[in-house]
Amino acid sequence: MHDPTLTVLSGTGLSKAFGKGGKAVQILHGLDIALPRGALSLVKGPSGCGKSTLLAILAGLTAPHAGTVDALGARLWAMKPAARDAFRLKHMGFIFQGSILFPALRAHEQIELVLGHMGIPARQARERAMAALADVGLGPRAALRPDALSGGEKQRVAIACALAKQPRLIFADEPTSALDTENGEMVSRHLRRLASEHGVTVICVTHDDRLSPFADRIYHMRAGRIDRIETEVAR
Ligand SMILES: Nc1ncnc2c1ncn2[C@@H]1O[C@H](COP(=O)(O)OP(=O)(O)O)[C@@H](O)[C@H]1O
Ligand SMILES: [Mg+2]
Question: Is residue 82, in this structure, part of any structural domain at all?
Fold first, then answer.
């Protein structure tokens, strides 16, 4: 078992079904998961097994039918919705497949918009945005709009955006799936660094095997539960 003192995000007895009555399909069957602090954890499993659903439940975006989520010591689904939204804004960053950027905004403005929502003053938001873009190697491209960026660069803007929030938790859903070999590897390395160098707890759901060598831990999902855990994968 995991050392509970090091667990920063956990789901216990999570159940979820979609559809009603006889047509209901049970996706999660009392799933338990506990993620160690500052690690890059992957959740792997075939398409349709419920990875995105699990991530959304752990991030406070989709309510489970049963079970609890504890994030940074807070019981996420016992909070009022507004408190949960505020918690998410403050503590969680998100990276999705082909992350969506605003067409009209420059790379640094994408990030500043999010930081503005957090109540961070404009000057500080600019500094944080530029630092985060430099961190993912996009310093010289900070003033470009999405049109002028490659797929890999756009995904690095999304990573910089998640990083600039300085969250404790980062959630990634298939962040490499739309990318070629080189860009997929680059994004994998950045996720690795978020954990190793910035101490962020990163949970990434994916069916992409290319991410595996970068992970500290791999949770294999099967039949709505975590079936097997591989530890000490990376390094
Ligand atoms: N909002 C929804 N309404 C109905 N069915 C859904 C919904 N979200 C997901 N599903 C179904 O739940 C199953 C698991 O989906 P998902 O969590 O996206 O799997 P994965 O991310 O592993 O591919 C799929 O069969 C999907 O069609
Ligand atoms: Mg998915």
Answer: yes
- Please give the Cα distance from 67 to 215 (Å, whole number): 26
Ligand 1 site-directed mutation target among 43, 44, 52, 53, most atoms within 8 Å of CB: 53
- The CATH number of the domain holding residue 174 is 3.40.50.300
Is 214 domain-assigned?
Answer: yes
* Residue nearest (by alpha carbon) to ligand 1 atom 1: 18
Of all ligands present, the nearest one to the C-alpha of 53 is 1
Rounded Cα distance between 110 and 100, Å, is: 10
pLDDT in tens, 56-104: 999 999 999 999 999 999 999 999 999 999 999 999 999 988 778 999 9
Cα 21 from Cα 70, distance rounded (Å): 30
Q: What is the number of domains present in the chain?
A: 1
* Cα 17 to middle of ligand 1, angstroms: 9
Q: How confident is the model at residue 3 (pLDDT cuts 50, 70, 90)?
A: very low
Range of the domain at 69: 4-100+167-231
Identity of residue 76? L
Q: In the chain, what's the furthest Cα-to-Cα distance?
A: 56
Is residue 67 domain-resident? yes
Closest atom of ligand 1 to 54 CA is: 17
What is the predicted pLDDT for the residue at 231?
87
